[in-house]
Amino acid sequence: MSMNSSKTRRKVVVASAENGDSGDKLDQLLLSSAISNGEDLSPFIRKTFASGKPETLLHHLRHFCRSKEAEIEEVCKVHYQDFIMAVDDLRSLLSGVESLKSSISNSNYQLQSVAGPLLTSLDSFIEARNKCQNINLAIESLRICVRLMELCSRANFHLSKNNFYMALKCIDSIERDFIQKTPSSTLRRMLEKNIPAIRAHIERKISKEFGDWLVEIRTVSRNLGQVAIGQASAGRQREEELRIRQRQAEEQSRLSVRDTVYVLEEDDDDGYFTGNEGNDAYGNGGTGNAALGFDLTPLYRSYHIHQTLGLEDGFKKYYFENRKLQLTSDFQVSSMTPFLESHQTFFAQIAGFFIVEDRVLRTGGGLITKMEVENLWDTAVSKMCSVLEDQFSRMRTANHLLLIKDYVSLLGVTLRRYGYSVDALLDVLNKHRDKYHELLLSDCRIQIAEALAADKFEQMWMNKEYEYSMNVLSFQIQTSDIIPAFPYIAPFSSTVPDCCRVVRSFIEDSVSFMSHGGQLDFYDVVKKYLDRLLTEVLDDALLKLISTSISGVNQAMVVAANMAVFERACDFFFRHAAKLSGLPLRMVERSRRQFPLTKARDAAEEMLSSLLKKKVDGFMTLIENVNWMIDEQPQNENEYVNEVIIFLETLLSTAQQILPGQVLKRVLQDVLSHISETIVNFLVGESVKKFSLNAVMGIDVDIKVLESFAENQASLVSEEEAIQLKKALVEARQLVNLLLSNNPENFLNPVIRERSYNALDYRKVAIISEKLKDPSERLFGTFGSRGYKQNPKKKSLDSLIKRLKDVN
Q: Are residues 331 and 383 in contact, defined by beta-carbon separation less than 8 angstroms?
């Protein structure tokens, strides 16, 4: 109706707009349009009051109201006509309904009269059907009760056999399939009451089994760790033996290039287990675990039962906390037992713990996570490092520290096979490397001091071949590969093999400490400490022995011989260190080192030379018996030279059996040089006031005898070294040559002096030259000199003396 009215209004507005010509008509039209469109009438009101004609506005409004009332009346007429037509239709419909009602009543009567017998039959059918349903329900209930009782009986059977998993499966089946279907409320209440009790009973029983396993696994872990570490030790021993055979083969190949060396390769059957062999349903190794005697079945059974009970997370937490407490308990170090005695048990317990955890991690089906095992391992490493730091700081014996280090390194080898990082443990061992070697040096210092104190400075006797092998061949200090006849008198005292055993033990202990510690090339470290042992310990001990205990020539000779043997032994020490360190011997032979006992060797030779010089000085006192103003040229050597030669020859007969040629040459050279110096110094000294040319000729004979003695030693030393022995008498020889020279003044010529008199001191020459007297001076020196023609040699000698005085 509103749409029709709006259409009518729009038509009125348009017609009015088209036909209205006057201003009132236009205002009336605009007002009607504004009212129809719902616009604001305030502009019309302001305009009316502004023009002062409000009556016009009221007129227009009344006119609009009348027009609308007419429209309303027209609309009402239209709708009333429709209502009249609807009432007429309703009346006609009411008459039809009455006829339909009568028809339906007749039909209902006919239907009831026909369906009466059928309804009676239907009631009988429904009653029979209900009875059948009741019988079927009873049968189904009985069937359910029978199956339920079978499950209950099966559950009781499994409980009696401690087969808890199958009992729980039966209970779960009862709860899932039967408890809600059970027709008996009594039976249902019984089940609802007993099922939680059964579950609680199973949980208690399985928890007790798990607790027993936790107690048992501690003992098993200790044994497991000991066996695993023992297997690592056996494997290491086999590797060492294989390396030794390989080094022997390489050495044979190096010495005999043409010979082909075959080496049998052995399988690496270390007996280790990694947990991948023969696992059963619970992840227990059928071979590896059986050999090491630990069983994870109770653990996995308990875990499986708790999973079935829906307590998986709680059991995981319970297991981790208990194992963590066990590990914390394993960290306790007893203060009542020395750590040296308990360290194997301590580390074996921890090793076994983590071997078990590795197996649980790999086969436990998520019982423990890798992160949890790593956290436990980090805690264990931290504690073990702390314990090692504390115990190492207290140790005062190198052997104790080595024993613990070896066991810790075996622990590292064992657990590294299971993927555990042991670098922190190896770092602790390397950190105490210096302390270990300091303790080892201290022990060796005591042993060497004891060996030197027990030495009697006598050549060592060996009656059997095994003694020769043990004291000579084992240190490669033999001078010949031919086995000597027995009894054998060695050219050294017992000090040499005793000290060699100490040094060899030091090398082996040092290599043992450095090996298997994560550092592959450790020869330089072993060599550094070996140098310290030889230079700081052995060399100092020998120096102390030489300076305090040597009192005779024989003792000094034995010590000097020992030093020559030590020189060969030192080569063996470095080869032995390289061999044990896995370094090819050819690399050691390329880098020859200076003899580390140089100070002791020089001191021994100096001591021997000093004692021999003292002996020689005793014979050289006979030089005072020489007639220095002899009138005739002597034909034979002086007495002192005979005594010295006899002593030296007697000395050589003994020394050549002990001392090597080089040592003997150096000592003889020093003694002969001392004899030469003694002769020259005696002529310089106050004991000789003057001497004749014939006395010089006698000294010349003495020197020739000594030179002949030096040349005769070519059988002991080489010809070149014999010449060097002869040169030891160079000072006395040059002095005699100068005094016997026809032109002594040539000494002042630098060229001649450098060539023929370079060993002479011009001050000594000046003093000795003044003491040389010509025989003519003794016969005619005080009278009859007028008309005497001076000897040219005397003139040259006087010129030499004068010029030497000017130089002074």
A: yes
Helices in 256-338 by DSSP H: which ranges?
288-292, 297-308, 312-330
Residue carrying the six token digits 């003495």: 702
> In which residue are the tokens 């014999």 written?
722
CB distance 787 to 778 below 8 Å: no
Per residue in 197-253, pLDDT tens?
888 888 888 888 888 888 888 888 888 888 888 888 888 888 777 877 776 676 566
668, 726 contact by CB (below 8 A): no
List b or e across 719-752, with b for residues whose CB sees 16 or more CB atoms inside 10 angstroms. Answer: eebbebbbbbbbbbbbbbbbbebebbbbbeeeee
Amino acid symbol at 500: C
Read off the pLDDT of residues 667-726 as tens digits, 9 standing for 90 and up: 888 888 888 888 888 888 888 888 888 888 888 888 888 888 888 877 776 777 778 888
3-state secondary structure string across 347-366: HHHHHHHHHHHHHHHHHCCC
Neighbours of 455 (CB within 10 A): 20
Six token digits for residue 380 = 């264990």
Q: For the chain, what is the radius of gyration of the CA atoms?
A: 64
- The span from the CA of 625 to the CA of 463, in Å, is 50
β-bridge mates for residue 488, sequence order? 462
* Neighbouring-strand partners of residue 772: 691
Q: From CA 156, how far away is CA 164, in angstroms rounded?
A: 10
**Cα gap 527→525, rounded to integer Å:** 5
The whole-number pLDDT of residue 308 equals 81
The two three-digit tokens of residue 577, written as one number = 């260190």
Query: Which residues sit opposite 489 in a β-bridge?
Result: 461
Contact 477, 565 (CB under 8 A): yes
Distance between the two ends of the chain, CA-based, in angstroms?
162
Q: Which two tokens stand for residue 436?
A: 């270990």
Side-chain-facing half-sphere of 634: CA atoms under 13 Å: 20
- Look up tokens 């201003």; give the residue: 23
**Tokens 């059957």 belong to residue:** 269
The tokens describing 106, both together, are: 């007749």
Element (H, E) at 773: strand 772-773
pLDDT band at 371 (very low <50, low <70, confident <90, very high): very high
Determine contact, residues 349/221, Cβ cutoff 8 Å: yes
What is the bridge-based pairing of β-strands 488-489 and 461-462?
antiparallel
- Cα angle value 593/596/597 (rounded, 5°): 145
Burial degree of 60 (CB within 10 A; 0-12, 13-18, 19+): buried
Q: Answer whether 0.70 is exceeded by the pTM.
A: no
Residue 353 tokens read as 């713990």
**DSSP assignments along 129-167, one per residue:** HHHHHHHHHHHHHHHHHHHHHHHHHHHHHHHHTT-HHHH
Residue 516 Ramachandran class (φ > 0 left, ψ -120 to 50 alpha, else beta) = left
Please tell me whether residue 521 adopts helix, strand or coil conformation: coil
SS3 1: coil
Query: What is the per-residue pLDDT for 790?
Result: 55
Could you tell me if 791 and 776 are in contact, meaning their C-beta atoms sit under 8 angstroms apart?
yes
Q: Annotate 319-349 with b (16+ C-beta within 10 A) or e (fewer).
A: bbeebeebbeebbeeeeeeebeeebbebbbb
DSSP 581: T
Cα–Cα dist 358/376, whole Å: 11
610 secondary structure, DSSP code: H
Q: Is 461 helix (H, G, I), strand (E, B) or coil?
A: strand
User: Quick check: 377 and 420 in contact, CB under 8 A?
Assistant: yes
Structure tokens given for 529: 């400490």
Phi-psi category of residue 260: left, alpha or beta, with phi > 0 → left and psi -120 to 50 → alpha: beta
Report d(CA 175, CA 180) in Å as an integer. Answer: 8
